[in-house]
Amino acid sequence: FHTKFIDGKSMETGNSSFDLLVADSPYDYVVLTDCVFAKELAVPLVNTILCCCGPRTTVICCHEIRDEDANAAFIETLTKHFTLKRIPRNKLHENYCNDLIE
Question: Gene3D superfamilies under this entry (predicted)?
Answer without folding.
Answer: Vaccinia Virus protein VP39
